[in-house]
Amino acid sequence: MNVFVTGATGWIGSATTDELLAAGHRVVGLARSDESAAKLAAKGATALRGDLDDLDALRRGATEADAVVHLANKHDWSDPEESDRAERAAVHAMAEALTGTGRPFVVANGLSGVVEGRAALETDRGPADSRGDSENLALSYAGRGVRTVIVRFAPSVHGAGDWGFVTFLVEAARRSGVSAYLGDGSTAWSAVHRSDAARLIRLGIERAPAGVRLHAVAEESISTRAIAEALGKALQLPVTSVDPARAEEHFGVVGFFFGLGMAASSARTRALLGWHPTGPALEEEILAGVYGQPLR
């Protein structure tokens, strides 16, 4: 298949590009810069110049593709309304281009805000305030001839080179001299290795029916205290609790997310696609030094 990928040079997108190419698919990646275009060319992929605000480029990419994978997002924490607006506009533009074709449209989302007090399930509806409600917008096209597939990613999509949430926790630990968790540390996250996430996206394109939500989750529930303790061992720093009221002060923007329960099940995903994660666990990678060496 000829697959159009937004965010093709990003953390998850670059692994997805590699996975698709290795499986014999062709990849056209949205590229905002000459550097991004060069990275794609070096892999054997094709670049389509544009960004999330270039709706004509998005329509063109979707129209000319056999499948679309939408991973890009502005992630502007200082202006979340603008990020949500751009996300919704991008999903709408590509979904309209795919209407009536029956082609796969894989759309990324996270697990933030899906449910509280229990592990999120694939059957749980996405919250309206997540990425401008783009998940539910994309799913509305499943009845209009688009094979929409939602992939919800664990808050930690980890691996060597990760620049996501765990990296922010490491930066806060180095800055403050302690590896911290919030409150009693019982809040739980899920996690998945980057390679497993990329493989799930490929399987979603190839096999998933229209209208399903998939969970890119290998480890369903890891307490935030366990994450902090692993980082403390790896960095040789003391481990301590921080008052939730001081979350943003201590951790920065990641403090808000560190206080959210984002555990999730992937049982339905595994049964549907035969997806079996094989990558190392998050704590294994932390203790192996993937996220840095001791300060001393």
UniProtKB/TrEMBL annotation:
InterPro entries, sorted: Epimerase_deHydtase, NAD(P)-bd_dom_sf, NAD(P)-dependent_oxidoreduct
Organism in which the protein naturally occurs: Actinoplanes philippinensis
Annotated protein name in UniProt: Nucleoside-diphosphate-sugar epimerase
CDD domains: SDR_a7 (cd05262)
Domain NAD-dependent epimerase/dehydratase, chain residue ranges per copy: 3-82
One GO MF term attached to the UniProt entry: aldehyde dehydrogenase (NAD+) activity
PANTHER family: PROTEIN YEEZ, PUTATIVE-RELATED
GO cellular component annotations of the record: cytoplasm
Transmembrane segment boundaries: none
Pfam families: Epimerase (PF01370)
Xref: Gene3D superfamilies: NAD(P)-binding Rossmann-like Domain
